[in-house]
């Protein structure tokens, strides 16, 4: 299992980035969460098979059609054993 935290910067709020990320993560069978940050970026943690986590990170570099991603900063974390992927609102 692999778990990452990613901070996605650019035009990523108000463009369905959170909802699209959650849908993609669920499609890939990942657990974790995604939320907006006060600075205008989006933060997420995702956990699952390494190939699936890598696929989500690749997707995060472009996101949904209306997003403009400038940077995706990824940090490796210890897996927590979560079972679902959620959108957080705070």
Oligomer: single chain
Lateral strand order in the biggest sheet: 4-1-3-2-5
Q: Bin the helical content.
A: 10-25%
Note the beta-strand portion: 35-45%
CATH topology: Alpha-Beta Plaits
What would CATH call the class?
Answer: Alpha Beta
Instruction: Please tally the helical runs, counting DSSP H or I stretches of 4 or more residues.
Output: 2
**How would you sum up the global shape?**
globular
Helix/strand order? EHEEHEE
**Straight-line distance between termini:** 27 Å
List low-pLDDT spans: none
Output the keywords.
24% helix; 90 residues; 2 helices; Alpha-Beta Plaits
Characterise this structure:
This protein has a single domain, classed as 2-Layer Sandwich (Alpha-Beta Plaits). The model has no long low-confidence stretch (mean pLDDT 97). The termini are far apart. It has a five-stranded mixed β-sheet with strand order 4-1-3-2-5, covered by helices on one side. It has 90 residues and is an alpha+beta fold. The longest helix is centred in the N-terminal third of the chain and has 11 residues.
């Amino acid at each position: 299992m692999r778990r990452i935290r990613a901070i996605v910067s650019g035009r990523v709020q108000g463009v369905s980035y959170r909802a699209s990320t959650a849908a993609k993560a669920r499609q890939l069978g990942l657990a974790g969460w995604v939320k907006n940050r006060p600075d205008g970026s989006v933060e997420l943690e995702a956990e699952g098979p390494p190939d699936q986590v890598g696929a989500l990170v690749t997707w995060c570099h472009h996101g949904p059609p209306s997003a403009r991603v400038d940077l995706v900063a990824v940090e490796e974390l210890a897996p927590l054993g979560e079972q679902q992927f959620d959108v957080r609102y705070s």
